[in-house]
Amino acid sequence: MEQRMKLIFVGDPMCSWCYGFGKEMSAIAQSMPGLEVQVVVGGMAAGSTQLLDDAAKQFRLTHWARVEQMSGAVFNREALMARKNFVYDTEPVCRAVVTARTIAPNVDVLKVFRAFQRAFYVDGLDTTDGNVLAEIGARAIAEQGIETTADVFFEASTSDEVIDATQRDFELTRRLGVRGFPSLFVEIDGKIGQLSSGYTTAAQVMQALKPLAA
Q1: DSSP assignments along 8-28, one per residue
Q2: Pairing with 142, which of 72, 111, 153, 191 sits 20 to 30 Å away (CA)?
Q3: What Pfam family is a match, any one (predicted)?
């Protein structure tokens, strides 16, 4: 009997290391088109009420420089420094990812996830704002040929169904014992094992996956 294998990607769209890992994760998915990929949002700073002051901005810029050096990912530093009274709450953007997969079950969630990453890190958009997220999410879904609107997206994002589903992702993240983002797990016939924690390369992941796939 053939075994079923699934790759579980645990991340947060506003996590800089997850953003740096974006190209690697896409490369993995493209090189193994038959591999099922489950995207789990981790809620890195979900529910945070802390204002992003100058010290916190500088701290993030230091991280961004390391991510940029490791991955080549491009960051919009000016947009970060220009933010006023910004609360780094990642719950809304995580919920937006869950909204996308809820209203469009056949959507490539990874592509939507990356659209939110680009919006925050490159375009400098406020990915804590529900209306902004609805515009980004609806456009990312529409780009895959699935019809929806920002109004439909926003309404779904505030529903009990999506709020509860987002919390279940956070709970799964805790149950998996995730210590850092991004984290990769592989599930084979219901049994889950960790592949990596933190930034890694597609080549390293592929090397670990190939014997398991065989």
Answers
A1: EEEE-TT-HHHHHTHHHHHHH
A2: 72
A3: DSBA
Provide CATH code, domain 5-213. 3.40.30.10
Contacts of 38 (CB under 8 A, 6+ apart): 6, 7, 8, 9, 187
Report the distance separating Cα 17 and Cα 12, nearest Å.
9
CB atoms within 10 A of CB 180: 14
Task: Give DSSP secondary structure letters for 142-177.
Answer: HTTT----HHHHHHHHTSHHHHHHHHHHHHHHHHTT
**pLDDT tens for residues 78-98?**
999 999 999 999 999 999 999
DSSP secondary structure letter of residue 127: T
Note the pLDDT tens digit of each residue in 57-70: 999 999 999 999 99
Which of 6, 2, 18, 27 is CA-nearest to residue 203? Answer: 27
Backbone angles phi, psi at 36, to 5 degrees: -75, 130
Alpha helices (H) along 84-126: 91-103, 109-121
Q: For residue range 177-210, what is the model confidence (pLDDT) as tens digits?
A: 999 999 999 999 989 999 999 999 999 999 998 8
Nearest-10 Cα torsion for 11, 13, 19, 25: 50
**Cα–Cα dist 11/108, whole Å:** 15
- Using DSSP's 3-state secondary structure scheme, residue 126 falls into coil
